[in-house]
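Notes from hallway chat w/ T.B., transcribed later so I don't forget. T.B. wanted the structure written out for a chain they're using in a teaching module, and asked if we could keep both sequence and structure tokens in one place. Agreed to drop them here.
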Amino acid sequence: MKLAGSVLAAAAALFATSANAEVYMKETFEDAEWESRWTVGTEWKPTSQTGEWKWMTPELHEDGKAIQTGEDARFYSLTAPLDAEVNNGAYE
């Protein structure tokens, strides 16, 4: 019975931790300004090999916006800063 109690305590701690999770980044792509918040990688592949991102309305989510890759057989790179500082202890 002690093992079951330990498992329950560990599960409760896990759920308590996940319930207080911090959001490090949230992007909905709802406005055309998404391009000013994101940076397209340009130096890792020649321009002739990279595709362009499209801002569009998804078929199954017509009241929202999204981005999608615009061309087949191309390379894509997109980065954005996080909203909060991340410290996962990996580099300490």
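Follow-up for T.B.: The CA atoms of residues 55 and 68 lie 7 Å apart. Might be a good example for the class.
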